[in-house]
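Data deposition worksheet. Section B asks for the primary sequence of the deposited chain exactly as it was used as input, without tags or linkers unless they were present during the calculation. Section C holds the resulting structure in token form. Section D is free text for depositor observations; keep each observation to a single sentence. Incomplete worksheets are returned to the depositor.
Section A, Depositor: J.P.
Section B:
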Amino acid sequence: MNHYQQQPTAAVLYTADGHPLYATTPTTAPLVPYQPTPAPVVVHHPGPAYLPAQPQQFTPAPTGDPWPARLLCGGIGIGAAGVGTAFLLQAVAAATTGLGCLAAVLALAWLLKNSNTGGGGGRGGAVNVSLNVSNRMTNRNR
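Section C:
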């Protein structure tokens, strides 16, 4: 059952250049003046000046213990803590290795600077050399 009245559509003819020609005058719906809807009436009922404090009570959910979810969360937490600890230890190891190498290079440079032996390096000063040469020939070799 159709409760809406449908207007008959007018037949449209077109000219050669595409302009529409209506065979009958197009029918339009009659204009209805605007009537705004009335605003709802709000009635304010004053309540008590304060509301008494209601005790907050926690009631557990009636479902069973979600042990798979707890195991999953614990496993993820332990895994994340393990990865974080591994990154921390790796960073500490890299830092100590770098500091050790720097200390070794500085110690080697200090030893080379302060050594008194070898190659004339350092603050050793002049080297005293005594050389005794005798040019005596024995009777056998004459």
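Section D:
The longest strand covers residues 12-14.
The chain is about 35% helix and 5% strand.
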